[in-house]
Hints:
Helices cover 34% and strands 25% of the residues. With 308 residues, it is α+β, with helices and mostly antiparallel strands. It has 2 domains: 9-120, CATH 3.30.1330.10; 137-306, Phosphoribosyl-aminoimidazole Synthetase, Chain A, domain 2. Strand 3, helix 2 (79-95) and strand 4 (99-107) form a beta-alpha-beta unit. Helix 1 runs parallel beside helix 2, helix 6 (196-208) packs parallel to helix 8 (236-245) and helix 8 (236-245) crosses helix 9 (255-261). The chain starts with 17 loop residues before the first strand and ends with a strand.
Amino acid sequence: MDVYTDSRTLVPLGDDAGVYEYGGVIYVYTVDFITPVLNDPYLWGAISAVNSLSDVYAMGGIPLNALAVVGFNSCSMEIEVLRQAMKGALDKLREAKTVLLGGHTLEDKEPKLGFAVTGVCPDGIYITQEGAKPGHCIVLTKPIGTGVAIKALKEGLLKESDITEAVENMLKLNKEASEIMKASKASACTDVSGFGLLGHLMNICRSSKVGASLIFENIPFYEFSADLVRKGIYPRAALSNLNFLKEFIETDLEDWQLLLLTDPVTSGGLLFTVDKTRLQETLTKKFSINCYIIGYISEESGIKVFRK
Ligand code: CO
Ligand code: CO
Ligand code: CO
């Protein structure tokens, strides 16, 4: 691909967001949209906004403003559904102090909602997927297993009230996670989404030319998601993610455990690498989110994931 670029482009294509300097200010740009994930349109909208803001937080930026991207099926959808979804999204943009500047709506068989978000890094520091250092610990800030849960919900195997823990986490902005990540001077960061935990960790490893070692026991996941995967219920993407990664993984885990680790995530947490002592220093202050240390960065390439 022959892409026009210039010296103000600070991060090559392929990271969570674009980073661009103009007039001494470092801007962060990203766009993301999702199809309905829950039966409640208000929650879908709210999760969509949290999901769209996440890539700015993953770069260590602060979101400033957003443009809505809306796909609407006027034959099968009540306008009230869209109104509720926008209400959910706008509540989250308000929480993130992000201004809605405009957007675009188009007719679409499958409804979609998301945002193009612009942020800034006022301190001049942005964190990419490149830079993970051997010896640094790997931190995850939300449990995994949302892809499985959403699939089960769509197929009527679970009710929204069965997965409140997952819904609450999907509704959580990665703002505080980003503050912890920056305050502890993380060496690399991304957010967990469609490629699953292992896929996004692999992206960090490849960009940073390192490997990783994970301990399954320390990885947080939803029990209902684990139960479903054990029964053979998981999204097709979990399997394709796993097939893609398999040759780079050394493991003593069973297949269902690996499928949980490659389950596509909606509105997932941040995944960052950091010096453990600096993280612990940062965490002596009060935060409302969890930082799970799930493993370590190693020199040799590939991902090792063992039970203990
Ligand atoms: Co991302
Ligand atoms: Co994204
Ligand atoms: Co990043």
